[in-house]
Amino acid sequence: MNKAAYALKLPQSLKSAAQRLAREDGVSLNQWIVVALAEKVGAVETSADFLKRRAMRADPSTFQSILDRVGSHPPLTGDELPAEKGR
Question: Which of 43, 42, 22, 20 is nearest to 32 (CA)?
Fold first, then answer.
């Protein structure tokens, strides 16, 4: 496995928490950070793949038929579009 060095600057509070968790897991801080990063990369890539596959199944005509059912009813409170600046 190729390895690359990367100088990482962390807030002291985050570093302290990571050190504590690494100690509890019985691993080095470096190893704990590598595993945490690998978990995050895996989660992001998995969710992106899921959403991509889900989008491929989308049917624009079905979506339009859902929008057509809304009619001219105003949006519910909190669902309004933000007012544009300069309007």
Answer: 22
Give pLDDT tens digits for 21-71: 999 999 999 999 999 999 999 999 999 999 999 999 999 999 889 888 887
Rounded CA separation 10/14 (Å)? 6
SS3 labels along the chain: CCCCCCCCCCCHHHHHHHHHHHHHHCCCHHHHHHHHHHHHHHHHHHHHHHHHHHHHCCCHHHHHHHHHHHCCCCCCCCCCCCCCCCC
Torsion angle defined by CA atoms of residues 39, 44, 48 and 49, in that order, rounded to the nearest 10 degrees: -10
Residue 18: what residue type?
Answer: A
